[in-house]
Amino acid sequence: MNRIIGIAAVQVAPVAYDVEATFRSFEQHVRQLAASVPSAVLHVFPEFYLPALGSYDEPAPSGWASAVAEPIPGPTTERVAELAREVGKWIVPGSLVERAGDALHNTTVVIGPDGELVAAYRKLFPWMPHENSVPGDRYVTFDVPRVGRFGLAICYDGWVPEISRTLAWMGAEVILQPTYTRSIDREQELVLARANAIANQLYVVNPNIGGLFGTGRSTIIDPEGRVLAQGASGEEYLSAFLDLDLVATVREHGTAGLNQLWKQLRDFPPPFPPALESYAAGEIMRDLGPLRAPAARPCAPPTRA
Q1: Are residues 26 and 227 in contact, defined by beta-carbon separation less than 8 angstroms?
Q2: 47 belongs to the catalytic site
Q3: Residue range 266-286: mean pLDDT, rounded
Q4: Res 270: pLDDT
Q5: Domain extents in the chain
Q6: Considering the domain 4-248 in this protein, what is its CATH number?
Q7: What is the DSSP letter of 179?
């Protein structure tokens, strides 16, 4: 049985600070995708899309975050669930402003095709000092039955390699990373997305905001760092098939047939900080075959031209 899933990275822009108009646009995008790209069973939207965050040069109204915040589950997740049931798709609607007591979190959710709230993840590494959401305190993965395991990250999380590494260690074969970036560092983000895919031998799906105030360039990257799709600056849909058996192949045999990264981390780890001393106990290590280390021999001297 193959483990292939069709996905869509949805590069769109909200109607700035108009939550209801943005949700109507969201519904239209989901229905249009369901009709025009039926093989895409997982739709992933950008960070802060449904809360309708506007452009950086258009300051948010006073109290915007508090005004759009709601609990999870809550009214918005219920509306997304109804839409997911209607079209029969997995939906990651970007991120929401979650109210939890006195705290406001930047939280992404996963809604299954039956309308179930499958997972919720609070951004671990907010973009300080520009973002004042309260950091989360746990890593989150979820399983798509008969396909594989997915990890969740949000935007600036991609700058912290330990986050992607931990999700992979937990068994993630794909990282879904909704993003809102229109600053000059999008080029660096694209490098980091490829690096996280290569260093962890998994797929990275990174939809960014698009349209008039978005830098766009959403991207989908495979486990060896190849760019499967990349957007321009406007609104568009990026679709691709992810073959999760390729993740297993790359991890077993090595990137480019050479670098058996996870086996070496299991069997010959460097001196990690104390928190990582039990590295070999990670979920990813369970099904990997043996690492056949080369026999000890002197290093060959460099060859002179």
Answers
A1: no
A2: yes
A3: 77
A4: 86
A5: 4-248, 260-293
A6: 3.60.110.10
A7: -
